[in-house]
Amino acid sequence: MDLSLPAPELAPHLLGCVLRVGDVAVRLTEVEAYAGEHDPASHAWRGPTPRTQVMFGPAGHLYVYRSMGLHFCANIVCGPDGEAAAVLLRAGEVVDGVETARARRGGVPDVRLARGPGCLGQALGLTTADSGAPLDGSRVALAAREHVPARIRSGPRVGISRAADTPWRFWLDGDPTVSAYRRSPGATA
DNA sequence: GCTTTGATAGACT
DNA sequence: GTCTATCAAAGCA
To answer: Looking at residue A182, what is its pLDDT?
Structure first.
């Protein structure tokens, strides 16, 4: 696993990998690539800010942000140092620490534990305090998948207002934990 | 210092 | 399928 790859190349390679945060681990089933300064949909497209600075740093760190006040979304920073590339983790299947995740999510069906970016962040217990945390295996670790997933699909990204037609969303076809496609209301497409 | 916007999720018609 | 809650960071005056 080479996290210094550009986001669009790395994203499909992350599918099927297991991300562990504390007691909870998820198998990634849905991700989206963001190419930083070259991507109008990225938080970092206009240059570094206090909130996005971690994306400009070296690969192998978490970037966590808050959306709509209530929801936390997790990204894995990738690309070379200085490039604001990141891969948004949109959904996953909880493979360890299910009880912990279930408690955090308030008793929803298991298939929904990490379905959707905000849900995934909540299931893993991530907050903005975890933004910038390294994937060094202490609290957060990324394990390579054992086999290449059989069916990977790609398509337009979801829920963003710019460049929504860029096919940088990747997911495992047929996986029940993948969120239903949901078009951005104001997407320019 | 103030105003606008957002990489959503869940409830409601 | 459509509508809205809710707040911090970004952007602008």
So the answer is: 56
